[in-house]
Amino acid sequence: xxxxxxxxxxxxxxxxxxxxxxxxxxxxxxxxxxxxxxxxxxxxxxxxxxxxxxxxxxxxxxxxxxxxxxxxxxxxxxxxxxxxxxxxxxxxxxxxxxxxxxxxxxxxxxxxxxxxxxxxxxxxxxxxxxxxxxxxxxxxxxxxxxxxxxxxxxxxxxxxxxxxxxxxxxxxxxxxxxxxxxxxxxxxxxxxxxxxxxxxxxxxxxxxxxxxxxxxxxxxxxxxxxxxxxxxxxxxxxxxxxxxxxxxxxxxxxxxxxxxxxxxxxxxxxxxxxxxxxxxxxxxxxxxxxxxxxxxxxxxxxxxxxxxxxxxxxxxxxxxxxxxxxxxxxxxxxxxxxxx
Length: 340
What we know:
Helices cover 15% and strands 49% of the residues.
């Protein structure tokens, strides 16, 4: 043991202990004041004008989140180490008085930072002044323009192309609203399926120079516009053409039955004249004509004033559905026979 107290190890350990005691003495007796930075102290806005809530004015720019998400500051404090070390961000009050912020303009406000703890002082804080800009909120109606690009599916035409939303109402800060000159939706023909009848397209805003305008700070009455259209093509199909009675009345005014029989090139066909015709319509509408021979009808024939057998010439096929038309309506003759 005597050898240990005389060894270098003993003196080294003793030196460390003495150094620690000296450090404690300096820190707590000679220099008792200690400085520390408290980070991320929330800034609370007070006396906020109702004009912000009503949407009449808004903060724009880099600090546009002051009222919604808030901002923070870093606060340097000093005091006794034992006290300062216990301070948390919630122990510090940082407020920004908005009493003068009630109209459009640029503002430079100084936060009011306080701490309710004796023996602790505020040395400084990271944001001595907070700058922001306020603008009035405006509305504007913009007509939506429909633009097209690309190529249609082979063999198809587009008809009745219409944008159902003609106006978009935008609301936002004056500088953002004034920078928007037009609104467009673009219908890409290359993306269309032959069975499509409508597309919902995103509205894109442009400035007066034709560049895409920033629209993140505005509210839009609609974000998408529906565009409707009809894609049509032509098909050659076989149909049976039959005469149709007007209002399905099959007797003349004297009460005698009139039989209508279709004829084509002098021949009569009890089950209808089978013809090859070219139809124009949508892909979905044409499908029912492509596989089987369908029965179609002529324009209605009024038999109430037919009293003798006769041939009715140039009887046209009646229009089909709204999605299918004849490229050229076929014509047949109809034999009217009056029965006793």
